[in-house]
Amino acid sequence: MKVITILSGLLLTITVDAQFDSGKIDSDLMLKAHQLAKEILIIDTHIDLPDWLYDEWFDVSTSSDYGEFDFVRANEGGLNVAFMSVYTSPQLEIEGKSKLKADSLIRIVERIEQLYPDKFKIVRSISDIDRFKNSNKILLALGMENGSPIESDIDNLRKYYQQGIRYITLSHYKSNHICDSANDPERKWNGLSPFGEEVVKEMNRLGIMIDVSHISDSTFYDVMRLSTAPVIASHSCCRFFTPGFERNISDEMILELAKNGGVVQIAFAGFFLREDINKRYLQGEEEIKEHLKNFNITPGTDSAWQYESQYWKENPVGQATVEDVANHIDHIVKLVGVDYVGIGSDFNGVGEHLPIGLEDTSRYPNLIYELLRRGYTEKDIRKIFGENLIRVWRQVEEAAAGTE
């Protein structure tokens, strides 16, 4: 349904999603949620747009049916800063093509800015955000998902900093030359590799945020031992709700991360949010792996992704809701406080597995509504949707400046 209202002489049309019972919706609270979305700084630390554009270019300056992100929908949802994921699959490290792909994805983000300068602006620092946050543009920051493109050469890390990379997820679903992965049963290093330790120290020195999403527990504790600056989990959820699922972050790790001033950016994937969905998803993942093996399809290739997408359409695992996302935020707030949680949706990265009520970048107000309904204050919401991440980023910048 749509709610139409007048605010300061402006006609606003607010979409109320299906998961909200129209008879129970608090229209005043929903209006407040939409107002807040326009007033506060919203930072989403993980959107997988570049890889989509690598496969097939489309106009992100207008409303589209592709994925979950474009200017129109992001602007409607109040998004201010979107971290574009520079993602390289583990298969590319095997093929020696990680850096080539990463460089191409960075150029794609630069092309977005060049083609649509009135709508998008790349930012590389907190001062950039302060300068351009009222420009009516979507600000694009760069986060590298999987450190494989560093290719065992610390000079490459320095070059990526110069190109604007401001966080690096050390690994993805396979262990790499930097560290072990939470998704990989093979533990080559039992944490960070010797080169990985060098990477962590150099990221601190340069001012690149260390992202602990995807890494193994032992890698996490190695990072926490070595890092002199707070770290982030750019798109993770709480293991409390998915027992035994190492990809999510445990209560003990949340406590350790908060002690050092870091922040967990909650992802929106249903299989991260709920145990029942997670179990069905993991079973499906095994069936997909078996199919790829039997038909000699290389994981990470277009053929593999096409099969996987079709598999999930034919074998749905169920959908989480905006309430489930709020439950994870609640859990962290109760555990360590409101200063250590944010959002990292994984839009354009999880396909059919997004929650009801958070289907794309226009829907952030639905999460704000749910948090308001639970008693969160405007100050709390400002922290969760952006200020906590800004604090960490600033501390990483300051720590780097102190090493010069």
Brief descriptors of the model:
single chain, alpha/beta, TIM Barrel, 6-stranded parallel sheet, 3-stranded parallel sheet, 11 strands, disordered N terminus
Describe the structure.
Helix content is 46%, strand content 14%. With 404 residues, the protein is an alpha/beta fold. The protein folds into two domains: 41-273 and 320-401, TIM Barrel (Alpha-Beta Barrel), CATH 3.20.20; 275-318, no CATH class. Strands 3, 4, 5, 6, 7 and 8 form a six-stranded parallel β-sheet that branches. Helix 10 (251-259) links the parallel strand 9 (232-236) and strand 10. Helix 1 packs across helix 15, helix 7 packs parallel to helix 8 and helix 14 packs across helix 15 (364-373). The protein is globular, with a radius of gyration of 20 Å. The model is unreliable at 1-13 (pLDDT under 50).
Mean pLDDT across residues: 93
Give the topology string: H per helix, E per strand.
EEHEHHEHHEHEHEHEHEHEHHHHEHH
Helix content: 40-55%
**Which percent range describes the beta-strand content?**
5-15%
Largest sheet: 6 strands, parallel
- Give the tally of structural domains: 2
Question: Could you tell me the radius of gyration in angstroms?
Answer: 20 Å
CATH architecture of the largest domain: Alpha-Beta Barrel
CATH class of the largest domain: Alpha Beta
What is the CA-CA span between the terminal residues?
55 Å
CATH superfamily of the largest domain: Metal-dependent hydrolases
Compile the SSE list and pairings:
Elements lengths: L1 E6 L2 E6 L11 H13 L3 E5 L1 H7 L15 H7 L3 E7 L2 H6 L2 H18 L4 E3 L3 H7 L5 E8 L8 H9 L2 E5 L24 H13 L2 E3 L5 H10 L5 E5 L14 H9 L3 E4 L3 H4 L1 H20 L7 H13 L7 H15 L4 E3 L20 H10 L4 H24 L3
Parallel strand pairs: 3-4, 4-6, 5-6, 6-7, 7-8, 9-10, 10-11
Antiparallel strand pairs: 1-2
Helix pairs in contact: 1-15, 2-5, 7-8, 14-15
